[in-house]
Amino acid sequence: MALSANLLAAPVAAPLLTAALILMVARWGGRTLIRHQVALTALALCLNLGIALTLFFGAAVQGRRFVLQFGNWTAPFGITAYADGLSATLLLLTAIVALAVYPFAVATIDYHRARMGFHPLYLFLLMGVNGAFLSGDLFNLYVFFEVLLMASFVLLTVGAQPAQTNSGIRYVVLNLLASTVFLVAAGVAYGTLGTLNMAQIAERLPLASEAVRTIFAGLLMVAFGSKAALFPLFFWLPASYHTPPPAVTALFGGLLTKVGIYTLFRSFTLFFPELLLSWQPALLTIAGATMLVGALGALAQPGIRRVLSFHIISHVGFMLMGLAVALSGNSLAIGFGLGAAILYLCHHMIIKTALIMAGGAVELYMGSDRLASIGGLVTRQPLLAFLFFMAAISLAGVPPFSGFVSKLSLLQITLDTRHWVVSGVSVFASLLTMINMMRLWRESFWDEYSRPSRVPSRLLQSTRRQWMMLVPVAILVLFSLGLGIFGEPAFRLSMKVAQNALDRDAYIEAVSPSALYSSDLRRGAFYTTGPTIPGGNTLSSTTLGEPPWPAR
Amino acid sequence: MPELYLRLLNRILTPLLLLLAIYLLLRGHNLPGGGFIAGLMAAAAFELQILSRGHDRVRRSIGPYLNSGIGLGLAIAICSGIAGLLNGVFFKGLWFDLHVPLLGELAVGTPVIFDLGVFLVVVSVATSYLLGLSRVSDTAAPIPDGAPSPELSDSFETDPAVVADDSSLRTER
């Protein structure tokens, strides 16, 4: 195995090792030690970005697939790490978001939170997200979900404000419920298919009965849909995102729901592409409802961060729409829809993070984020007003920015596949987004200057802190602009990534679990009485036969 | 003051528990056992210390090292994985024979080192949980006659974590 495959361990190992070093060397307390923590964390984030860029060029641009079998134990027995274009794209975006939020976090996180371990937690969260994107078996996916859940729970509650603790408990309880459902799904997979390796599940799932496949898919849909904040299961998100410091909200808004979306993309393209055809009406309904509920809910929210976090839900609906039309059976639509969804995901991660950071800056300058009581910041902070405006219109989908390209491509494929209703809903949700963004901008920047409460004075005194808050926002907005201007190459690349992700056989081939069974399967010899699959003693009771869709 | 039998038990059991923890840690190499169980066993020894000597003294003696212990354990575990790169693949086991004077040849590999890391993490995490829980149970204990006993109020004031929490709340408001 080449060295390049070992690179897959780095996005998990580098943050973990750095966090361990911080815990070991730089103990809590003391401003010098916290400066050391900051330096180490920044170093790890830069390293992570470098690794992610390398993987991105290998996997997304060159179309390679990286597989790392830990300790050289092959697939069914060992742990598999897998990266193709989809995982590598998300890794790269995660690295960008984490690195961009970090200066903002350093500038705005107070000393007490830093003392309680904010910086190592930041790295643990990054490690959990990276690990979830890379894991090649269901159980490790679960483990990394838990890692990121615990890290985010502590990040949410560190500081121990009453509101934070309240929202933290709701967050962790609802997410643990989703994790339990996911664990049940993993149990179903292991009990019926005798494996947890994702490639092997994909290989054996056609052998399982219709009931098993439906239950497995339904459980995964509930678990991942809850992580991604889809329509009926989104309650944890608006309940919790507005309470922690703005930097934490920006990081969460950029990263957390995207893990759920990634796992939805991965599981539906790899495990049961055929179910998406039969479930398409339900999926499109969920997507439409998510878009509408997110946008309408945001209209009713009183604070900047509440509006922005409700909007995350709306955008998750757009991505699900891309996935749902992707599998309408039309081979052109398959790649096109998923590619558009991936482009939308990139756009969303970049611009949502920028917008939450800009909103957080407004909140810190004003001392409050209640729209009714703030206003007139444009004269005091013209640069912030400009950046917020640019990010807002990019989110709403105004031309030269990335929002336009991604929304246009999504809308195009939805219209091409004749899903009139959901495309109408998406246009309406975009309009609501525009209204929301203009409302946010008008309320916080226009009007008479009014400042309701005390302002953290050190923030206004230190120009260095102000630059550390604004420069990342500016860079992300420039990113969005670049993604919009170079929309065509970006879209081509995401199409290529989507095609790569849709190629189930290549995934199975790359991981190659148990060559014995896979070679049999490829010849089309399905077991009727033949060898038993180890651990899968219920296989005999399932109906075996031809897979419901052709191999290629 | 903790009861006499607890202090007596502490003297007898703590060394035994720690020895058993080390035995389980090394035994886990080939047989049931391993870092996690050994870590819990060692944490039980620390819990016995907390019960018999009061959480205050234990916190003062080992409290500052718990975070370092977690970090060190994680670092050791990851480094044992990175050592596998010498053999080509991340987490590939490296094996070498160690000649120990009394025991003869021992095959030692990176899995043992990984287990050592797990052991350190589990010991540190479990002990810090137990310290935190004992603080809660001490401060929440019913006070006889409605008057705060001198011991309890004393421990509350000298507890650095509680003081830090309070000051952080005060500055936030």
Describe this structure in words.
- The complex is a heterodimer of chains A (552) and B (173).
- Helix content of chain A is 73%, strand content 1%.
- With 552 residues, chain A is mostly helical.
- Chain A has one domain (3-515).
- Chain B is mainly alpha-helical and 173 residues long.
- Chain B has helices at residues 4-27, 35-53, 55-83, 110-139, 150-158, 160-172, and strands spanning 95-100, 104-109.
- In chain B, strands 1-2 form a two-stranded antiparallel ribbon.
- In chain B, α3 packs antiparallel against α4.
- Chain B is globular.
- Chain B starts with a helix and ends with a helix.
- The model of chain B is unreliable at 146-173 (pLDDT under 50).
- The chains are: A mainly alpha (552), B mainly alpha (173).
- The A-B interface holds A 1, 5-6, 8-9, 13, 16-17, 19-25, 27-28, 68-72, 110, 112, 115-116, 159-161 and B 64, 67-68, 70-75, 78-79, 81-82, 84-85, 88-93, 164-165, 167-169, 171-172.
The major beta sheet of chain B can be summarized as: 2 strands, antiparallel
Q: What characteristic shape of chain B results from the CA principal axes?
A: globular
Task: Calculate Rg of chain A over CA atoms.
Answer: 23 Å
Could you report the average pLDDT of chain A, rounded to the nearest whole number?
Answer: 84
Uncertain stretches of 5 or more adjacent residues of chain B: 146-173
Largest sheet report of chain A: 2 strands, antiparallel
The span between the termini of chain A is 28 Å
Percent helix range of chain A: over 70%
Major sheet: arrangement of strands of chain A: 1-2
The fraction of residues assigned to DSSP E strands of chain A is: under 5%
Q: How many domains comprise the coordinates of chain B? A: 1
Overall number of strands of chain A: 2
| Straight-line distance between termini of chain B | 39 Å
